[in-house]
Amino acid sequence: MRNLGSSFKNHRLYSDFIQVKSRLAAHQFVCWVAGGAVRDLYLGRKVYDFDLVTDASTEALKQIFPEAVLVGESFGVLKIPVSNGELFDLATFRQESDYSDGRRPSTVNSSTPFEDAQRRDFTINALFWDDESGRLIDFIGGVKDLNLQTLRCVGDAVVRFTEDHLRIVRLIRFTAQLHFKIEEATELAAFKFIPKIQSVSGERIWAELKKIAEARSWDFTLNSKLFSQFLLEIFKAPLKLDFLKKHNISTIESFELEALFFILINLDADANETKKILASRLKLSKAELSIYELIQFALTQLIGKSVYEICLQFEKKEGLKKVLQFLVQLGISQKELVNECENLLDKYPVAVLSGHDLMSMLKGPEIGSALDEIRLLQFQGKIASKDDAMKLIVMKKSP
Q1: pTM (2 decimals)?
Q2: 174 exposed, middle or buried (CB, 10 Å; 0-12, 13-18, 19+)?
Q3: How far is CA 245 from CA 241, 262, 294, 330, in A?
Q4: pLDDT by residue (tens digit) across 68-111?
Q5: Do the beta carbons of residue 295 and residue 262 sit within 8 Å?
Q6: What 3-state DSSP class applies to 56?
Q7: Residue 54 domain boundaries
Q8: How many domains does the structure of the chain reveal?
Q9: 153 forms bridges with which residues in the sheet?
Q10: Which of 133, 148, 163 finishes a domain?
């Protein structure tokens, strides 16, 4: 165990926390840090933000913090603006019940700290830090599970997953991030409730998948039967595990989304169906979908292509170079090929012809085809000027 007090005081957000705590203390309310920040401070992991809890009611909080953003008010949570445009989530100790939609509670009531801990998902996320007394507060054995490197639901795992089906995906994410084992009852309940993931919004599922990708623990994650079952539920297709393990993406130092997409491309499913699920079910952004499409294109359309043809695609498809660099790290593309493309593009940075030059001579798709042909010849050193290109076009057009 690290010295939590020292680690907490050295955090970049500590001075902001003190300001919030002082305003609450002036009205005789406590201010504790809760959940993931406490867990990660204990483990010595990087902490990005603080979630705070207090015994003040929501109405009292609105009086003390008139600047608060009220987006979570109905759930007893306010967002408190602090320095540098950041926000603290500040919540009243609360109980929750009647999760009729498998995600959000219908009823939220104020409670004691002990009752607040009982409503949380996993024991390692049910810890509190009281900075005033310098105490780590653990009502349900979270510290023991941190030391055992175990993920365990708070209370009855069936109840926890019934309340919020997204917790199954969060469980997978924590295994990737922490490399913890899953306690047996928790794992059995997670497998039982995997079909319920279909009722969770695609945006939330995709957000968790991106966090899994950022963990860069694919060697660990790909061996997770729960992760494989989760993908099967969402995409209705199993992983090609042998192929994925052959190309060890755990060696990739960055390219988090590319690595995730490489896995999804290697589902035993139709590529168009997978893309449809990504776009319609998980609601990926256009930029994210373009990365998926580029990897799919590189794996299916560039195999066996000449360096000149690949150069042409580099110019047409922004981001393709980065994708090929990713595939080089997997041993699928050749580094020499990418380097040769870069050299050719440096040597011939500007095409000798533009579409405007051909508008009076050719129509529609003919213009694009002619420009591609001329650019390929330029990369090959067979055409050096606009005049050479125009002569070739005229010659081809002549009967």
Answers
A1: 0.88
A2: buried
A3: 6, 12, 22, 11
A4: 998 876 777 899 999 888 999 999 998 865 555 545 555 556 78
A5: yes
A6: coil
A7: 1-148
A8: 2
A9: 122
A10: 148
